[in-house]
Amino acid sequence: MLFNRSNLLDQVVASTGLALRQGTSLHFFNILLLPLVWYPVCVSGQPGSITIWMSEHGQQHYDYNFQLPFTGVMVFGQDQETQPVFHLRVKCLDEDQLLYTYLDFVLEPVTGSQPGGGSVYFHGVGPYTITLDHNDTWCLKRWGTQVKLLCTKSRSLPVGPLSWKDENDICTQLHIESGLQLAPTGVMLTKCSPDHFTCRDNQCVPLEKVCNSENDCTDGGDEIDCFTAHPLATYISTSPPQIPLPLQVDVNIRTADVDLMNAAVRANLRLRISWEDARLEMRHLQNVYKRLTLYNSTLWSPNVQTFNSLEFATTASHPVIMAKRLSPGKTVDGEYLSFPGHGNPVVNIIDLHTHTYCRYDLLKYPDDIQTCNITFQILNVRQDRLKWELPSSSEVKCPVFHEEFWVKDCRFLLPDNFSSRFFVQLTFRRKNDYHIWATYLPCILLLGIGYGTLLLPLDNFNERGTMSLTTLHVFISLYAQTTASLPRTAYLKRFDLWYVFCIAFLTLVIFTNLATSTTTNTRGTTAEGPFWWHPSGPVEQRNEAWSSKKLSNSSTQQQQQQEQQRHEESRRKRKELVLKTASVVLGVTSLIFIIVYFTGAYITM
Predict the structure, then answer these.
(1) Which cysteines are disulphide-bonded (predicted)?
(2) Tally of CB atoms within 10 A around 43
(3) 352 beta partners
């Protein structure tokens, strides 16, 4: 009972229900008030009454009489004006649980009538003292006896983490009313309160700072033995915590690379799988995620593998099981903060390298949008024993940057709520920057060069033919190189249509140049193009016919020359007309095709 010295009488009466009464004969009993000194107390031997008077260092202070419901009583009082200075913490083990007992002491000087061989001793709130015996040995004893309960060796005050020896079954005596046979597992005399950790130099550290990866004790004692996971007796590392097991999955796709030739996608992912395990007691949790460690044991965690992989998925590092503080912890006397598995989820972080099959649709290449599914399966939980926390059971983070594609969307998909498989769906849209500069712009320039041969003078057939044939050869080489970098398909891609049009366009330009060609042979006569129609017959035949006529007069020769010039001028005008018509038709056709092609590509983006 906690009593304040100023109104001790009222509080004792209110707490015990004893009635005030005068007593006659007296016998000695004890009552204890702080500052931790045993006070002699007189108790009436007459049944039904008790008279209490107290003295401190021989001076009487109180004289009270109480009506008793029985003949014997022990009243313990604690003065709240003074707090205990030292606490002897005794930890006892009872099969599967720990029992803590605190005995409070103050440091008092040794006088002639008081026990102890040193200059000071520890005066207890209860009937205990801690005194210095010979050979630097400090022992816990009952008041007024020499029976040793606990002993330790220390050249200074026996405060802090020391090894205490059980001399007389201390745990059984402290818990004698329970009838349990207990064994001590730890004893410490400290000035720290139960919510503080005791360093070797007697410094007190709040339990929130124990095992936080920072040395708060000068010797780093608060960062020793920081095992954060402690399985209960019912824990089986090969079995899931419960059935059905609620799971939550977060996926962070760090990088993703499209492998067109192998119809696959390569991805580096980080899976973050969280669940609750009520079979665990977790310690030293912080407000940020902290790795769970066990002593000589393993934790159960989901075994995740990719299902549609071209090769076994490899892990970048060993899976890391972590947890953080989400619910209030329980103070375990001066040692640690305990957190239950329920309400504090366990998180398993797995880094994976996957090479997964993906069916690509290249019909609209290079303006295509591809969708790939990476399938994962949890192997150590049956399909009907999972329960995904829907609707917001997962979060998928897409890669921010990719050289060839825009990552348009990332989704988490489930076949059903109890399936052991889950999917991560990636949607890619190809970037046009590369093909604009590496394909379309060079092709348009080559088309312009080929088209420009139609604008050269009619007599420059060699230049026109050389330029158009060279341009066609470059187109065919570029098309072959591009096709070699793509997988073979049974259908024409949009990219194929672009190259087919460009090749057909240049082929028509070459045919036009051939049809309108005019060259001079070695005999000095003019040769017409192979596709040209001559209404008056070939020029060479007419020249030979005219030369066979041995015209004698010069006027006839002049008429023949004039007629030949008229025919040549007429043919030249017809060739120029055909060339201009072809250039207009081909130019308009190419312009319409380019506009339609890029408009369709823009609409489908």
Answers:
(1) 192-204, 199-217, 211-226
(2) 26
(3) 269, 315
